[in-house]
Amino acid sequence: MKEGQHNGLAATAVFDRLVGHWQHGYLLQSLVAREIKVRYRRSVLGVIWTLLNPIMMMAIFTVVFSTLFARTLEDFPIYFLSAHMSWHFFSQTTNMAMTSMVRSAALYKRIYVPKYVFVLAVVVSDTINFLISLVPLMFLVILLRHPITPALLFVPVAFLILLGVITGVSFIVATIAVFFDDITQFYQVILQATMYLTALFYPISIVPPGWRSLILLNPMYHVIQLIRVPVYNGTLPPLESVVVGALTAAVTLVFGWTLFTRASDRFVYYV
Q1: Cα atoms in the 13 Å half-sphere on the side-chain side of 118
Q2: Long-range contacts of 192-198 (CB under 8 A, 24+ apart)
Q3: Whole-angstrom distance, CA of residue 171 vs CA of residue 97
Q4: Contact at 8 Å (CB) between 62 and 80?
Q5: Of the four listed, 9, 67, 110, 154, which is most buried by Cβ atoms within 10 Å?
Q6: Which of 162, 170, 221, 227 is nearest to 194 (CA)?
Q7: How far is CA 47 from the centre of its chain?
Q8: Helix axes 239-263 and 219-228, enclosed angle (nearest 10)
Protein backbone atom coordinates (compact mmCIF):
# COMPACT_ATOMS: atom_id res chain seq x y z
CA MET A 1 0.00 0.00 0.00
CA LYS A 2 1.31 3.44 -0.90
CA GLU A 3 2.19 5.83 1.90
CA GLY A 4 -0.43 8.35 0.80
CA GLN A 5 -3.18 5.72 0.86
CA HIS A 6 -2.05 4.51 4.28
CA ASN A 7 -2.15 8.05 5.70
CA GLY A 8 -5.57 8.58 4.15
CA LEU A 9 -6.96 5.45 5.79
CA ALA A 10 -5.46 6.45 9.14
CA ALA A 11 -7.02 9.90 8.91
CA THR A 12 -10.38 8.35 7.99
CA ALA A 13 -10.17 6.00 10.97
CA VAL A 14 -9.49 8.91 13.34
CA PHE A 15 -12.35 10.91 11.82
CA ASP A 16 -14.74 7.95 12.13
CA ARG A 17 -13.76 7.53 15.79
CA LEU A 18 -14.41 11.20 16.54
CA VAL A 19 -17.78 11.08 14.76
CA GLY A 20 -18.63 7.95 16.73
CA HIS A 21 -17.96 9.81 19.95
CA TRP A 22 -20.32 12.61 18.94
CA GLN A 23 -23.05 10.02 18.45
CA HIS A 24 -22.99 9.45 22.21
CA GLY A 25 -23.42 13.14 23.01
CA TYR A 26 -27.07 12.72 24.01
CA LEU A 27 -26.16 9.81 26.29
CA LEU A 28 -23.49 11.92 27.97
CA GLN A 29 -25.94 14.78 28.38
CA SER A 30 -28.50 12.45 29.98
CA LEU A 31 -25.92 11.00 32.36
CA VAL A 32 -24.75 14.47 33.39
CA ALA A 33 -28.35 15.44 34.15
CA ARG A 34 -28.75 12.23 36.15
CA GLU A 35 -25.60 12.92 38.19
CA ILE A 36 -26.81 16.39 39.09
CA LYS A 37 -30.35 15.25 39.94
CA VAL A 38 -29.17 12.31 42.08
CA ARG A 39 -26.73 14.50 44.00
CA TYR A 40 -29.39 17.03 45.00
CA ARG A 41 -32.46 14.80 44.92
CA ARG A 42 -33.09 14.85 48.68
CA SER A 43 -31.65 18.29 49.29
CA VAL A 44 -33.99 21.19 50.10
CA LEU A 45 -31.55 23.83 48.83
CA GLY A 46 -30.39 21.83 45.82
CA VAL A 47 -27.76 23.50 43.65
CA ILE A 48 -27.59 26.41 46.10
CA TRP A 49 -25.29 24.18 48.15
CA THR A 50 -22.74 24.67 45.39
CA LEU A 51 -22.62 28.32 46.41
CA LEU A 52 -22.95 27.78 50.14
CA ASN A 53 -20.26 25.11 50.51
CA PRO A 54 -17.27 27.32 49.63
CA ILE A 55 -18.71 30.22 51.64
CA MET A 56 -19.15 28.07 54.75
CA MET A 57 -15.69 26.52 54.44
CA MET A 58 -14.15 29.95 53.92
CA ALA A 59 -15.90 31.29 57.02
CA ILE A 60 -14.72 28.39 59.19
CA PHE A 61 -11.11 28.53 58.05
CA THR A 62 -11.05 32.32 58.22
CA VAL A 63 -12.17 32.28 61.85
CA VAL A 64 -9.63 29.58 62.74
CA PHE A 65 -6.59 30.67 60.76
CA SER A 66 -6.88 34.31 59.72
CA THR A 67 -5.62 35.56 63.09
CA LEU A 68 -2.78 33.05 63.08
CA PHE A 69 -1.56 34.17 59.65
CA ALA A 70 -2.63 37.81 59.90
CA ARG A 71 0.93 39.10 59.59
CA THR A 72 1.85 36.99 56.58
CA LEU A 73 -1.42 36.89 54.62
CA GLU A 74 -3.71 39.75 53.68
CA ASP A 75 -7.25 38.97 52.52
CA PHE A 76 -7.05 35.46 53.94
CA PRO A 77 -10.56 34.50 52.67
CA ILE A 78 -9.40 34.99 49.07
CA TYR A 79 -6.12 33.17 49.74
CA PHE A 80 -7.99 30.17 51.10
CA LEU A 81 -10.99 30.13 48.77
CA SER A 82 -8.95 30.43 45.57
CA ALA A 83 -7.19 27.19 46.51
CA HIS A 84 -9.97 25.36 48.31
CA MET A 85 -12.36 25.53 45.36
CA SER A 86 -9.82 23.87 43.07
CA TRP A 87 -9.03 21.23 45.67
CA HIS A 88 -12.71 20.55 46.34
CA PHE A 89 -13.28 20.18 42.59
CA PHE A 90 -10.45 17.64 42.41
CA SER A 91 -11.33 15.60 45.51
CA GLN A 92 -15.10 15.51 44.99
CA THR A 93 -14.92 14.65 41.29
CA THR A 94 -12.38 11.85 41.65
CA ASN A 95 -14.29 10.45 44.62
CA MET A 96 -17.53 10.30 42.65
CA ALA A 97 -15.83 9.00 39.49
CA MET A 98 -14.15 6.24 41.48
CA THR A 99 -17.48 4.47 42.05
CA SER A 100 -19.09 5.45 38.73
CA MET A 101 -18.39 2.14 37.00
CA VAL A 102 -19.73 0.12 39.92
CA ARG A 103 -22.85 2.31 40.24
CA SER A 104 -23.58 2.09 36.50
CA ALA A 105 -22.90 -1.64 36.07
CA ALA A 106 -26.59 -2.53 35.71
CA LEU A 107 -26.83 -0.32 32.62
CA TYR A 108 -23.72 -1.30 30.68
CA LYS A 109 -24.24 -4.98 31.51
CA ARG A 110 -27.58 -4.93 29.67
CA ILE A 111 -26.79 -2.81 26.65
CA TYR A 112 -23.67 -1.67 24.90
CA VAL A 113 -22.61 1.85 25.80
CA PRO A 114 -19.07 3.26 25.78
CA LYS A 115 -18.03 2.92 29.39
CA TYR A 116 -15.92 6.05 29.45
CA VAL A 117 -19.07 8.22 29.29
CA PHE A 118 -19.93 7.30 32.89
CA VAL A 119 -16.65 8.78 34.10
CA LEU A 120 -16.99 11.79 31.83
CA ALA A 121 -20.53 12.39 33.11
CA VAL A 122 -19.17 12.82 36.64
CA VAL A 123 -16.40 15.13 35.43
CA VAL A 124 -18.76 17.30 33.38
CA SER A 125 -21.39 17.57 36.12
CA ASP A 126 -18.77 18.59 38.69
CA THR A 127 -17.28 21.04 36.21
CA ILE A 128 -20.66 22.76 36.09
CA ASN A 129 -20.71 22.89 39.89
CA PHE A 130 -17.17 24.27 39.95
CA LEU A 131 -18.02 27.06 37.52
CA ILE A 132 -21.04 27.99 39.64
CA SER A 133 -18.87 28.01 42.77
CA LEU A 134 -16.67 30.69 41.19
CA VAL A 135 -19.44 33.21 41.90
CA PRO A 136 -18.65 33.51 45.66
CA LEU A 137 -14.96 33.98 44.87
CA MET A 138 -15.67 36.73 42.35
CA PHE A 139 -18.03 38.41 44.82
CA LEU A 140 -15.39 38.21 47.55
CA VAL A 141 -12.71 39.77 45.34
CA ILE A 142 -15.03 42.69 44.62
CA LEU A 143 -16.22 43.02 48.23
CA LEU A 144 -12.70 43.14 49.67
CA ARG A 145 -11.50 45.36 46.81
CA HIS A 146 -8.75 42.90 46.03
CA PRO A 147 -6.61 43.97 43.05
CA ILE A 148 -7.78 42.63 39.68
CA THR A 149 -4.91 42.29 37.22
CA PRO A 150 -4.40 40.99 33.66
CA ALA A 151 -2.92 37.83 35.20
CA LEU A 152 -6.50 36.60 35.57
CA LEU A 153 -6.42 35.88 31.84
CA PHE A 154 -4.27 32.86 32.71
CA VAL A 155 -7.04 31.31 34.82
CA PRO A 156 -8.77 29.56 31.86
CA VAL A 157 -5.45 27.88 31.01
CA ALA A 158 -5.03 26.87 34.64
CA PHE A 159 -8.58 25.51 34.64
CA LEU A 160 -7.86 23.32 31.61
CA ILE A 161 -4.76 21.92 33.30
CA LEU A 162 -6.73 21.24 36.48
CA LEU A 163 -9.49 19.60 34.43
CA GLY A 164 -6.93 17.42 32.66
CA VAL A 165 -5.51 16.20 35.98
CA ILE A 166 -8.99 15.52 37.36
CA THR A 167 -10.09 13.61 34.26
CA GLY A 168 -6.94 11.49 34.19
CA VAL A 169 -7.09 10.63 37.90
CA SER A 170 -10.82 9.90 37.56
CA PHE A 171 -10.14 7.27 34.89
CA ILE A 172 -7.38 5.75 37.04
CA VAL A 173 -9.37 5.42 40.27
CA ALA A 174 -12.53 4.32 38.41
CA THR A 175 -10.56 1.45 36.86
CA ILE A 176 -8.86 0.38 40.09
CA ALA A 177 -12.13 0.50 42.07
CA VAL A 178 -13.70 -2.14 39.80
CA PHE A 179 -11.01 -4.70 40.70
CA PHE A 180 -10.07 -3.57 44.22
CA ASP A 181 -12.96 -2.31 46.31
CA ASP A 182 -10.64 -1.34 49.19
CA ILE A 183 -9.33 1.56 47.11
CA THR A 184 -12.43 3.56 48.11
CA GLN A 185 -11.17 3.63 51.72
CA PHE A 186 -7.50 3.90 50.93
CA TYR A 187 -8.10 6.82 48.60
CA GLN A 188 -9.61 8.88 51.43
CA VAL A 189 -6.34 8.57 53.34
CA ILE A 190 -4.38 9.61 50.25
CA LEU A 191 -6.63 12.64 49.73
CA GLN A 192 -6.30 13.70 53.35
CA ALA A 193 -2.51 13.49 53.29
CA THR A 194 -2.30 15.24 49.93
CA MET A 195 -4.56 18.06 51.12
CA TYR A 196 -2.20 18.95 53.96
CA LEU A 197 0.75 18.83 51.56
CA THR A 198 -0.97 21.24 49.17
CA ALA A 199 -0.79 24.29 51.48
CA LEU A 200 -4.44 25.22 51.10
CA PHE A 201 -4.77 27.28 54.28
CA TYR A 202 -1.21 28.21 55.25
CA PRO A 203 1.64 30.00 53.48
CA ILE A 204 4.49 27.77 52.42
CA SER A 205 6.92 30.34 53.83
CA ILE A 206 6.18 29.21 57.40
CA VAL A 207 7.06 25.58 56.63
CA PRO A 208 10.54 24.36 57.69
CA PRO A 209 12.87 23.77 54.70
CA GLY A 210 12.78 19.96 55.04
CA TRP A 211 9.00 19.80 54.90
CA ARG A 212 8.84 22.56 52.29
CA SER A 213 10.71 20.40 49.80
CA LEU A 214 8.13 17.66 50.40
CA ILE A 215 5.32 20.08 49.54
CA LEU A 216 7.11 21.18 46.38
CA LEU A 217 7.30 17.53 45.30
CA ASN A 218 3.50 17.32 45.46
CA PRO A 219 2.14 17.90 41.91
CA MET A 220 -1.22 19.08 43.26
CA TYR A 221 0.48 21.97 45.06
CA HIS A 222 1.65 23.30 41.70
CA VAL A 223 -1.72 22.66 40.02
CA ILE A 224 -3.53 24.59 42.77
CA GLN A 225 -1.02 27.43 42.51
CA LEU A 226 -1.92 27.92 38.85
CA ILE A 227 -5.27 29.38 39.91
CA ARG A 228 -4.38 30.81 43.31
CA VAL A 229 -1.41 32.94 42.18
CA PRO A 230 -3.25 34.90 39.43
CA VAL A 231 -6.28 35.44 41.67
CA TYR A 232 -4.54 36.21 44.98
CA ASN A 233 -1.10 37.54 43.98
CA GLY A 234 -2.22 39.14 40.74
CA THR A 235 0.77 37.71 38.89
CA LEU A 236 1.42 34.84 36.54
CA PRO A 237 2.22 31.56 38.34
CA PRO A 238 5.87 30.44 38.50
CA LEU A 239 7.14 28.67 35.39
CA GLU A 240 7.95 25.64 37.56
CA SER A 241 4.31 25.28 38.56
CA VAL A 242 3.14 25.69 34.96
CA VAL A 243 5.53 22.98 33.74
CA VAL A 244 4.75 20.58 36.59
CA GLY A 245 1.00 21.16 36.24
CA ALA A 246 0.99 20.66 32.46
CA LEU A 247 3.13 17.52 32.70
CA THR A 248 0.92 16.12 35.47
CA ALA A 249 -2.18 16.70 33.34
CA ALA A 250 -0.61 15.08 30.27
CA VAL A 251 0.75 12.04 32.15
CA THR A 252 -2.43 11.36 34.14
CA LEU A 253 -4.62 11.77 31.05
CA VAL A 254 -2.57 9.41 28.89
CA PHE A 255 -2.04 6.85 31.65
CA GLY A 256 -5.64 7.04 32.89
CA TRP A 257 -7.17 6.69 29.41
CA THR A 258 -4.82 3.82 28.48
CA LEU A 259 -5.48 1.97 31.73
CA PHE A 260 -9.24 2.45 31.46
CA THR A 261 -9.62 1.41 27.81
CA ARG A 262 -7.45 -1.68 28.23
CA ALA A 263 -9.34 -2.87 31.30
CA SER A 264 -12.91 -1.79 30.48
CA ASP A 265 -13.83 -4.98 28.60
CA ARG A 266 -13.31 -6.96 31.83
CA PHE A 267 -15.44 -4.73 34.05
CA VAL A 268 -18.57 -6.87 33.59
CA TYR A 269 -16.84 -9.84 35.23
CA TYR A 270 -16.03 -7.95 38.45
CA VAL A 271 -19.07 -5.79 39.20
Answers
A1: 23
A2: 194/218, 194/220, 195/87, 195/91, 197/221, 198/83, 198/87, 198/224
A3: 8
A4: yes
A5: 154
A6: 221
A7: 19
A8: 120
| Residues 221-254: b if buried by 16+ CB within 10 A, e if exposed | bbbbbbbbbbbbeeebbeeebbebbbebbeebbe
Write out the chain's pLDDT in tens, 271 residues.
Answer: 444 444 444 444 443 443 444 556 667 777 777 776 666 665 545 556 556 666 666 666 666 566 666 556 788 888 888 998 999 999 999 999 999 999 888 888 888 888 999 999 999 988 988 888 888 888 888 888 899 999 999 999 999 999 999 999 999 999 999 999 889 889 999 998 898 889 888 888 888 887 888 899 999 999 999 999 999 999 999 999 999 999 999 999 999 999 999 999 899 888 7
13 vs 34: CA distance, rounded Å = 32
From CA 244, how far away is CA 223, in angstroms rounded? 8
> What amino acid occupies position 28?
L
Per-residue HEC secondary structure of the chain comes to CCHHHHHHHHHHHHHHHHHHHHCCHHHHHHHHHHHHHHHCCCCCCCCHHHHHHHHHHHHHHHHHHCCCCCCCCCCHHHHHHHHHHHHHHHHHHHHHHHCHHHHCHHHHHHCCCCCHHHHHHHHHHHHHHHHHHHHHHHHHHHHCCCCCCHHHHHHHHHHHHHHHHHHHHHHHHHHHHHHCCCHHHHHHHHHHHHHHCCCCCCCHHHCCHHHHHHHHCCHHHHHHHHHHHHHHHCCCCCHHHHHHHHHHHHHHHHHHHHHHHHHHHHHHHCC
Q: Write the CA distances from 185 to 2, 163, 190, 256, integer angstroms.
A: 54, 24, 9, 20
Beta carbons of 130 and 53 less than 8 angstroms apart: no
